[in-house]
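Customer escalation, tier 2.

The customer says the design service returned an amino acid string that "doesn't look like it belongs to this structure." They asked us to rerun it and document both sides in this ticket. The original structure tokens are below, unchanged.
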């Protein structure tokens, strides 16, 4: 059996029993659906389904690698883009570990050369050191980078709920199935926002053009309070935490913290830190900002993974999560839905330790044969790091 057939069978078996975990979008008959397939890796776009049962039947017959759905609604979703007739789009955000910039990425990126079979660890390896051929890079994910993506998502939810006033019922949150999270704002109020308006929302989340003096962080003006809302409160609270850490090395700071009430003593902090104060403000802004993929949010015609479906490169579920439960969400347990039945694979590229169901597997080296649970076997094969052993 080929790897493509193995993956397709695994996905087909899952969707035959687990498609009900997928989330039906509002106005399904006005959405564009897209799919990718295993093996030939076809991209199927501009599909329309009048009802949920039609989509389910199509998925069961195709067993696709990925099921994508437009964030926009159209008059004619099955027509080419210029004739679709755009009616509006959800406000969506994509937070990925790549955008967060964790230090661990370089430590768990492997590669292999299809020409000579050489493999190794390293980020940004373009050519095989053995034969000079083009290598294939495999980016893995670990608890550290997924936790970083989770914390960025928590910051985003805070902005959406407390600064923009969206309720939890208007927010659809899901694990991407790979290295991050997707957030959909489903409120009717956002559907008509144009590209510029969505860019301004992203700029607000990033703190672009933030004026510290206008917000009260200069000696003149009303100082921010720790309980202030919006950017004033976020920066003030982060400044307090940074100064608390700094007080261990600078005895001048402790008296300021001891006398600090809710209102920030801007003049006293500036007197102690001097020019460093303005650098500390920039650092605080950077740390409380939410780093989303601006291209995704500003794209009025974006198609994204249908929540509650499998990711074609991992076999993990793009699981829908309640915003109030994201703190406790563990993708290495809750997003693993394929079975534990054993499959044998041969490793093509180095694989780091991977945790599934609170069990650790690996690390594995090139040429090693592994008898793995099917969920792990699908992950390794879909990532291109292993091949099936008959």
């Amino acid at each position: 059996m080929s790897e493509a057939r193995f993956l397709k069978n695994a996905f087909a078996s899952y969707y035959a029993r687990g498609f009900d975990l997928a989330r039906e979008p509002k106005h399904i008959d006005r959405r564009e659906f897209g799919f990718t397939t295993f093996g030939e890796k076809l991209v199927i776009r501009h599909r329309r389904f009048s009802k949920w049962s039609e989509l389910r039947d199509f998925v069961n017959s195709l067993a696709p690698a990925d099921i994508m759905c437009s964030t926009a609604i159209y008059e004619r979703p099955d027509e080419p883009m210029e004739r679709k007739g755009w009616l509006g789009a959800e406000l969506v955000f994509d937070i990925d570990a790549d955008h967060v910039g964790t230090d661990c990425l370089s430590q768990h990126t492997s590669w292999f050369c299809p020409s000579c079979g050489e493999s190794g660890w390293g980020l940004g390896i373009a050519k095989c050191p053995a034969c000079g051929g083009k290598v294939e890079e495999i980016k893995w994910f670990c608890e550290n980078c997924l936790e970083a993506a989770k914390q960025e998502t928590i910051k985003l939810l805070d902005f959406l709920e407390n600064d923009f006033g969206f309720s939890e019922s208007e927010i659809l949150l899901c694990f991407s199935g790979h290295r991050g999270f997707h957030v959909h704002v489903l409120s009717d109020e956002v559907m008509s926002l144009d590209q510029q308006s969505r860019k301004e929302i992203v700029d607000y989340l990033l703190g672009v053009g933030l004026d510290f003096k206008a917000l009260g962080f200069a000696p003149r003006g009303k100082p921010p309070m720790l309980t202030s809302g919006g950017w004033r409160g976020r920066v003030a609270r982060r400044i307090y935490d940074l100064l608390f850490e700094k007080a261990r090395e600078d005895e001048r700071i402790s008296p300021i913290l001891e006398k600090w009430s809710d209102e920030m003593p801007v003049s006293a902090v500036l007197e102690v830190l001097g020019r460093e104060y303005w650098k500390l403000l920039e650092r605080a802004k950077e740390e409380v900002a939410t780093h989303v993929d601006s291209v995704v949010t500003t794209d009025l015609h974006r198609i994204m993974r249908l929540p509650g479906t499998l990711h074609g490169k991992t076999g993990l579920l793009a699981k829908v999560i309640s915003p109030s439960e994201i703190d406790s969400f563990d993708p290495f347990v809750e997003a693993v839905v394929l079975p534990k039945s054993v499959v044998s694979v041969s490793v093509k590229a180095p694989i780091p330790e991977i945790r599934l169901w609170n069990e650790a597997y690996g690390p594995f080296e090139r040429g090693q044969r592994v008898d793995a649970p099917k969920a792990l076997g699908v992950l390794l094969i879909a990532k291109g790091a292993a091949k099936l052993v008959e």
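Tier 2 assessment: The sequence is consistent with the input. The mean pLDDT is 94. The CA atoms of residues 223 and 280 lie 16 Å apart. Sent an explanation to the customer and offered a walkthrough call.
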